[in-house]
# Entry
Amino acid sequence: MEKIVSLCKRRGFIFPGSEIYGGLAGTWDYGPLGVELKNNIKQLWWKTFVIRRDDVFGLDSAILMNSKVWEASGHVGGFSDPMVDCKKCKSRFRADKIDVKKGCPDCGAHNFTEIRSFNMMFKTHAGPVEDSSTEVYLRPETAQGMFVNFKNVVDTMRPKLPFGIAQIGRAFRNEITPGNFIFRTREFEQMEIEYFVRAEEWEKYFDLWLAEMHRWSEVLGLEIHVREVEGEDKAHYSKRTVDLDFDFPFGREELYGLAYRTDFDLQNHLRSSGQELNYLGEETKTKIVPHVIEPTWGVDRTVLAVLLSAYQEDGDRKFLKLNPKIAPYKVAVFPLVANKPQLVEKAREIYSQLKTNNYKLGTIVWDDRGNIGKRYYAQDEIGTPWCITVDYQTLEDNTVTVRDRDTAKQERISISELMSYFENKLA
Ligand code: ATP
# Structure
């Protein structure tokens, strides 16, 4: 884990939030490479689950919502974690994440406060008046935005059951103990789908979404472990919940979740808002309140799991074996040496050609620092799948070498074939 945290800082993936002021617990900033990686993951998700499907519709709802949403959803009353303090060293813990009988994990004392319940929603005020009537919350999940827009999507898109609403967005939780790098933060991003089905078909679609989540994890190279959530850990309204866990260096922990939420949310909003949140069945012409299957993916935990899985060491060589589709840079272009104008000019030409087509390929980068070995080393470390080198032979026969990150092997490719070569690799 230390290697990944250090690589992220050193190579511009992820920095501590507000670093020059000593940081702010539970916040991290994505740097130039981190933002590319994260955007590529989000775009791949959107393509996979929205663009390529006919039955899922996108949404981007506001982070600030009427507080009645959170009252109806049960978050005001119940979105809390159990908290306990060590009276000796004053450390604070989530009571369900430590073994209280073993004593304080920081100082070993057996002197805890009573367990108290702590609501994790961040509260603020909308407008200049700070009283209870202007109180609003930063959303702790994106899901409710999809439930309150259910009728809008039905009325505008006229979908047939089953269908889904998908969104990617920020969520905020005042976590008692943020930590483990970007695993548990107070501000993070989620990719979520509410998939509306007929009550009697929930098992079929639960299994289909579980299969989809397996496929997604395979594409990213993530090994996941399915765990049935039982007893107290399962929300009272959910008939079945599974967590998809990943082996992080600090233990096997939740990466994604899949829940059958019945019609709990729509019924709550229907009751509280007095609005008809139903769906008119085509065949039966009867109004039904659909049930929902909710697959949810944390963006930041995906970034962490992807980096941990991709990191490889081969002797002195360190490389990130990222799926090229999500790699921050797709191709790096180098002149063999930086002090031969003819080589530099030719390399610049190729770089500009690829760069003008970068909406097809993704980010293309130029590098002429140091020697060729150092450049390969630097690109390997950030996971660039291919490096193009322009050498003396290029000037004679218009071919370049393309080096593969994973095998370190080089191929000679004609300049005119470069675009189709990379397009095929990224297809
Ligand atoms: P945990 O048990 O780890 O607190 P959770 O069960 O509360 O997680 P969900 O409410 O199911 O999490 O949230 C959906 C997804 O959002 C999680 O699977 C995870 O990927 C992500 N997520 C939740 N909380 C955080 C957080 N504090 N920091 C980063 N990602 C988070």
